[in-house]
Amino acid sequence: MIFSLYPSYFKLHLCWLRSLTRITYLSKLIGTSSFAALMQLELFWVYSYSSGDSTSDNDLVG
User: Taking the domains of the chain in order of start, what are their residue ranges?
Assistant: First the structure.
């Protein structure tokens, strides 16, 4: 029995980032909050195994 691990597909996620920026000038606001969108790529892995038989999936059809 042979096990293998390979990447299957990528999935794109949207994440929201929030930050609070300090400003040192007296004429400016004390802090400014901001939002940003981040696209994050996620990789999904697939485990597969082979039993070592000589028959393939094509041999089992019809």
Answer: 2-49
In this predicted model, what pLDDT tens digit does every residue of 9-40 receive, in sequence order? 666 666 666 666 666 665 555 555 666 666 66
- Closest CA relative to residue 20, chosen from 39, 2, 33, 3: 33
Give this prediction's pTM: 0.24
Question: Would the CA dihedral through 23, 30, 21, 32 be positive or negative?
Answer: negative
Which tokens belong to 24?
A: 């040192």
| Residue 52, Ramachandran bin (φ over 0: left; ψ between -120 and 50: alpha; else beta) | left
Q: Which positions ≥6 away from 9 have C-beta within 8 Å?
A: 44
User: What residue has token string 């920026």?
Assistant: 21
What CA–CA distance (Å, rounded) separates 37 from 27?
29
